[in-house]
Amino acid sequence: MASTTLSIAPDTVRTDPEVDGLDISDSEWRLDVDRYREFVAAATGISPADDLAPSDCYRIGNRIEALVEEHKRHDEWEPALVEEYPDVESLKAFLWVARFFRACHDASETHVSGGGQEQPCVPSSDRP
Fold first, then answer.
1. Are 102 and 65 contacting, i.e. CB atoms less than 8 angstroms apart?
2. What is the domain count for the chain?
3. CA 101 to CA 6: how far, in whole Å?
């Protein structure tokens, strides 16, 4: 089964994150959704589908960022924290996955179609 990858164009703010499953290549910033699927579900309560809508990306990024802030507020932001979550190997991965999903939402050119329905984010493997 092919891996699900979401891609957005990089901007000057983003650099190569050096996190497994997340990279910049071919003028795109890419996240291997399958690599972080269990982490996202455990951290946010949302299981990422193959047809993520921009609002899904926003909620996922927002919930991970809120989780990070909560752990920092309780002085729990330490390397051992990653042992509580599947698929993440570093605190840096927490932050980059959250940033990617928020940026994916922000990069969506059209959040709502003319009929009032959100259009799904397009995995890079499905782009023309």
1. yes
2. 1
3. 9
Better-predicted residue by pLDDT, 39 or 24: 39
What is the sign of the dihedral through the CA atoms of 34, 45, 61 and 123?
positive
Mutual angle of helices 91-107 and 54-73, in 10-degree steps:
150
Decide: helix, strand or coil at residue 5: strand
* 32 sits in which H/E element: strand 28-32
The mean pLDDT value of the chain amounts to 78
17 — pLDDT class (breaks 50, 70, 90): low
Domain that holds residue 120: 5-126
Residue 64 φ then ψ, to 5°: -65, -45
